[in-house]
Amino acid sequence: METMKRTATCGALRKEDTGTSVILNGWVHRNRNHGGIHFINLRDRYGTTQIVIDQDAEEALRQQAELLKFEYCIAVRGVVRERPDTMKNPAMATGDIEVAASEIEVLSTCKTLPFMIDEESDAKEDLRLAYRYLDLRSEGMQRRIRLRHEFTFAVREYLSREGFYEIETPTLIKSTPEGARDFLVPSRVQPGKFYALPQSPQLFKQILMVSGFDKYFQIARCYRDEDARGDRQLEFTQIDIEMSFVSREDVFRVTEGMFGHVFEKTLAMDLPAAFRRITYADAMNTYGSDKPDLRFDLPIVSFDAFAQKSSFNAFTGALESGGCVKALVAPGCAGYSRKLITELEAAARIYKAKGMAWMKVAAEGFEGGVSKFFNDSFDDITSALNASEGDLIVMVADSWLITCNALGAVRNKLGHDLGLADPKRFEFCWIIDFPLFEYQEEEGRWAAAHHMFSMPQARYLDTMEADPGSVKGDLYDLVLNGYEVASGSIRIHDPEIQKRIFRIVGFSEEEAEERFGFLLNAFSYGPPPHGGIAPGLDRMLMIISEQTSIKEVIAFPKNSVGVSPMDDSPSVVDAVQLKDLHISLDLPDTTETD
Predict the structure, then answer these.
(1) What is the per-residue pLDDT for 141?
(2) Lesser CB count within 10 Å: N end or C end of the chain?
């Protein structure tokens, strides 16, 4: 029998198509025999259509329907008819109709499935990844991959309209290790030399600005040899943007406009014309994080004034050593058991807090925990913290950074546990005025807080060397629902300022020349002022599709240990390949010893 080519997709037919003769191609999603009448749900990436083999159909057709199993790929010829009112399915786009089959052709069969292909599979991650080609057939994965396409298309649409060129940069580049480890690629024709896969197109996009392409973007593949986690993969995609002759305000305008366009096109949602701005210091003090989740209002407040007047040694000792005490009100949580409070404390300890103090707000005063030290100030504390009867107050005392981070972790846990963070709500904000340098205690030197090519704010240019810790950079992060989704800066284009930055972080001229000589050389040929930003595509898609792992928005991701169970990569290569590359292996001894 000649293969029947489809004339319609499984998501296209509606009541208006009643009486039309059609051919559908797809996969058997369900096959049910109800008293001699067969109902087959036929699925493709466009949707699902119900196929019916009536009782009075030819016996050969009825027998063929009996043999159809899950995920057989078939072609069906039939006539569209309206379902009886009692059998219409409003949950299906095609729920008003069905196709009465007159002919079925099996295009291919399917072995017994390792898991059922449902909207969201409950199979274990490695099983889903081993059979990713099946997992990708699920409605959830199909929906998210479609969203990824639409999102990316809308980005290209907006930036092209704004006059940007999409320019590809190399994926085999010079290794310039900083931050995460590079993935190295050996050269066969240059023995002993290696390319690196780019952690980002940072240096090349800056060179494009020197080249006069004042508006560049790229949907860029990036690679970092680091441990995987829920919102991070070894290979990922970012929307890379760079512009010349711009200030921070120009970068913000383009980014806000781009996401406004993308959200309208892909989610039919309007975003604010401009996003909220919060300084790094305010974000840390108020939310305990430089990527605050603004979907709920649980502010962290200073408790120093009350700690100073108390006799609680843990608090007074922290203040005397130059630290601080901060508090957070957990609304309606006075009923928390000791176990639940211990879970909050565990969240704080992850960020090196030595402990977490607490007390419950009752009608007549504080109860439990450290209440005895603060009952004399009950009215003042509840007023200052806006705490009410039935609330739980938690406190941390330590250095400023540890205190902020620890209570920020508690805040996030409370937001999750209390259901305060609506996944369908999207709260963007810019974090600005980051420190340009951070002091590395173990190494006894200053380091770049982001990277060495970020411009200091102009007001610090005269005092950089004298007080690096006070310098704010002309850099910025975009945050969405508690995740950093983009990072960028105005770049250094003045070679003399770049040399000063290198000196502050202890980066010798020789090392700078070795790693970044081609960029520094380009900057001696009239570089323009420039800056940019790089939103993470995978992370954005994870958030807007209400997932907790970027694996759910990537077609072929790696698992949590960087392995692809489907194609078994990374894998051993044979000795001939290694010899061609002039590589010998020195593997660790895994022999067990007594």
Answers:
(1) 96
(2) C
CA distance 293 to 176: 34
User: Does residue 284 lie in a domain region?
Assistant: no
Residues 443 and 483 in one domain: yes
Q: Is 203 helix (H, G, I), strand (E, B) or coil?
A: helix
Residue 37 lies in a domain: yes
Do 267 and 149 belong together in one domain? yes
H helices of 386-533, in order, are 400-417, 495-504, 509-522
403 shares a domain with 519 = no
**Alpha-carbon distances, residue 328 vs 133, 191, 312, 371 (angstroms):** 47, 59, 18, 15
How many domains does the structure of the chain reveal?
A: 3
Q: Domain check: are 300 and 372 in the same one?
A: yes
Q: Compute the average pLDDT of residues 542-561.
A: 95
| Residue 4, in any domain of the structure | no
User: Closest by alpha carbon to 23, among 135, 102, 95?
Assistant: 102
183 assigned to some structural domain: yes
Residue 313 sits in a domain whose CATH number is 3.30.1360.30
Quick one: 340 exposed, middle or buried, by C-beta within 10 A (0-12, 13-18, 19+)?
middle
198 and 73 together in one domain: no
pLDDT value of residue 179: 66
Whether residue 542 has pLDDT greater than 70: yes
DSSP string, 534-575: EEBHHHHHHHHTT-S-GGGG-SS---TTS-BTTTTBS----H
Domain of 56, in residue numbers: 15-108
pTM here?
0.92
- Residue 291 is inside which H or E element, if any? none
Q: Render pLDDT for 91-144 as a digit per residue (tens, 0 to 9).
A: 999 999 999 999 999 999 999 999 999 878 888 999 999 999 999 999 999 999
Of 88, 108, 128, the domain-final residue: 108
Extract the tokens encoding 303. Answer: 């408790």
Rounded CA separation 329/300 (Å): 8
Which tens digit of pLDDT belongs to each residue from 143-171?
A: 999 999 999 999 999 999 999 999 999 99
| 141 and 191 Cβ atoms separated by less than 8 Å | no
Last residue of a domain, one of 420, 449, 471: 420
Strands 483-490 and 276-279, sheet pairing = unpaired
Poorest-pLDDT segment among 141-155, 362-376, 497-511: 497-511
Element (H, E) at 251: helix 248-267
User: Residue 452 has what pLDDT?
Assistant: 87
Q: CA 273 to CA 260: how far, in whole Å?
A: 7
Find the Cα–Cα–Cα–Cα dihedral 97, 103, 107, 109, rounded to 10°: 80
